[in-house]
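Hi U.,

Before I forget, here's the chain from the pilot set. I'm dumping it here mostly so it's searchable later in email.
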Amino acid sequence: MKETKIYADEFCTTFASTTEMLEFLAERAKQSKWIRKPTRMLKLVPLEKEAETIEEACEKELEGIVEDTEKNTQLVLKVNKDFYPVRDCAIDTILKRAGINGTGLKKLEKATYAKVVNYCLQVAKGDALIKVADGKVSAVHGGDDHDYCVLDMQTIFNMTSDYLKAHFKGSTYLEGSGSFDHSIVSAMWTLGGNQELLDTYHQALEDHGIEDKSLAPALRLTTSDVAVSDAAAIMGVSPFATIRDLYFDKIGVTPVIEEEEENWVAKEVGHRLEDLVAMIFAKKTGLEVFPVRKMFRHPLYPFMLADVDYFIRFPDGSIGILECKTCNYNAKDKWADDGIPENYVLQVRHYLAVMNMNKAYIACLYGNNENEFVYRCLERDRMEEEELIEQEKYFWEEYVEKKIEPPYSGKPDLILSSIRKYKGYADKSIPEISISSLESRSLEKYLKLSEEKSQLEKRKKEIEAEQRALSVPFVELLGQGCKAVIEDGSFRYRITYNPTIRTQIGKENMEKLKNQHPDIYEEYTSTTESRIFRIKKEVA
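Structure:
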């Protein structure tokens, strides 16, 4: 461990003993401070605007902080006259303090991003509690009395160790289990001296048909952050992200290509209509619904979090979950025949596991009135829940904690998009690559499919030409008209011949615009990249 690089966003380390861990945390406490200021006094600034000021104010040994920030967030938090570089793990806490949800904002240029966040911070009420650790901002929380309370990390781990020694005789720290990075601190102890606890575990396993006499209980104290929407990505059924995308997000890897989010409007509409969906559900079912605006954590698996839309109070006094969704009219078929989109099912099963509840409803509004509305009941399924937990646990422990990239899985379009996003634009200057790790059988199958596709496209063109020939006499009779009806005994045929109007700038006029008004051309045109995968078979 190099002390001079502890400030780096990607810094992480492990501990062989509790003594080593506690000493490290004590040193981190000395290098950290909590600042309480009115939220409206905070200002987010692009690093490039204040880099020189910060470097002048910093001691020589801290100049590397600026360089590391330049490689990561490129942002600085201004608190009165002081400037603090922002660490990656602080970004979500700043957004939350500003009252902003979603990931689309992070894709803006840094100056625009900072401006939007600042507008929100200016109207935010109350104080902010800012953690500055090793020269960087690590978190920005609510600073009012009812918000966050500062607890010393060293004290928490020390008290945990002392408590286990006192109440579980023979408890020992698991060597090497302690770990630290700027967002997660974790340690594990094996528990001894409590046969009653062991008997409870054995009975629980036997209830599920499992017998394991070598079982040994343990306790892990940790902080972490697997979000609920991640369940679908982990299970390979997310329509939005691959498991590799999720992994990169957890370890703080920024995409090389940041493109405008295509479905940001739909996401924003969904967020804003949550209250309306809950209101319609309550009206249709007569059930009481209520929100609890806080994040919940699984008591045994701290990497599992739940941000529940609404809770339901049933007539018998029990509590359930209400998940609110919206979709466009064409997507309503996904809910047909009592169906529920699979990614939503996994999300709600994740919620039920975290909250230890037995029943949830998923409600979806797909139109602009209360009749264009569906809701489905989902009962807890312990077997499916256990599989989900096991997969999330495996993802967290085998990939995130070990910093190992998970293999790609899921829809090919999502995978190809992810590869492009994290690998970057094409570079024709790179020499030809020799690939020996993959079998050529896939290439042969690709070539065969290409031939089949070519034949089908040829046949498609022939069919379309024949259809056009058959349409000629009808189009002639329609003239400028767009609709017609033909009666033929017991059948009626309705014909439409509607126009499709597109406004575009021709190639020649585009060149004129570029030459005569280059400023306008640059402002309103964009360059996109697409790549075509082709195979040419040659004799070796």
